[in-house]
Amino acid sequence: INPADPTQYRTPDGWAPFTVRNETIRVKGEADVKVPLRSTRHGPVLSDAQKSHAEVLDLGKYVLALRWSALDDDNQTVVAGFKTNQSKSVDELFAGLAHYHSPMQSVVAADDQGTIRFKAAGRAPLRDAANDIRGVAPSPGWDARYDWKGWIPYDQTPQDDGSKGWIATANQRVTAPDYPHFLTQDWALPYRYDRIAQLIEATPKHDAASMQAIHRDITSLAARRLLPYLQQAQSSHALAAAAQKQLLGFDGLMDANKPAPLIFAAWTDELARGLIVPRIGEDRFTATYGKRDYRAALEGILERNDTWWCQPATCAEQSAAALGRALDRLQAAYGADPAQWRWGAAHPALSVHRPFGNVPALARFFDVSVPSHGDGYTVNVGQYNAGEASGPFVNRHAASLRAVYDLADLEQSRFIYQTGQSGLVFSPRYRDMSATWAATGYRALQREPARWVHTLTLTPDTAAK
What we know:
This protein is an alpha+beta fold. The chain is built from 14 helices and 16 strands.
């Protein structure tokens, strides 16, 4: 901000005035609230609305503005919608998606002519070679090297034409090591994709049933990687022997009806806290944990036996101490018999209603909760936010829709929603799919069912002019 004129901000070419738009919010029974909204050449000033920005920025000197492709005037995503709805082949679909703008999407498609394809559709910025921040953190808006230099051409966004005979995406890195453009550094760890690849390649020819089995898979390759360190932990906790007994034969199957996944999840949580907090501080850990689970860091630390991270104890001692803390927590929450603990009790799939899920007296009517399998690394995904004090293992991000389409006979296709098809809380269709969804079951997806429960015929009024 210009210290001599707070209505101006710095650009590569000198000082420029903020663009100001005044909004009036009418409040019942009160005076109108007038809100000036500022924008820079990059976009809206977020720090005017987010009080938390004042904790890290001197807002008397700086503002935080958002540059986002979706705010651009040339957004023709609606055109892509029209064209894709009219497409009759994979080629036509992706030709239509050339008009798609924001936000970028992973699109997979198949047609009845045998063509399959994946493509990252949408606008992604070209960044200057001298841009060393690459969108990972806020950049100095007055330095031109951090400005976007255009868009990655549509024919250069990541694409897979199915040369392996199959395509899968699970938020893993989709760019080759020699890909010339920077997209992001926040790829998901590849465990879900790797497991999908294992299951696809294990069967020479798939059908609808085998696709459903892949949907159902709850083997966590990430759990398998860290599990030996937990099984070797020598804890003096009174429940340690009983807990280790539950881990015998556990191979990373994140079954809602078993205690072992809960013991493992609590141990990894305590291990992350025990190793990371002393190095980055409680405040930074609290601000990032949950958004990041530090799983890759834990793997590296234990596999390297990294004494710097584990000091002043050994890594084995840190692992044992984490198990002790985890058992204290689990005992307090679920009792003193590890054999009675259940992953599903701590890991319900929670569909929170907005806004009534925030009202305790109403939440029990509007929220939908059901014990669920999986973790953030299983094909049947069940992500949790371990930094959430009110429910660190609650499943907050899962498959809202599962579908298997039979292109030989579309009437044999199957689907399931996480809750139900009605938004009316007292409708029998509000939550009637939740138990089937949790069990990875399906319902028929048909345009010509054997019978119709209701029929509505709309007849034009021929007398109308």
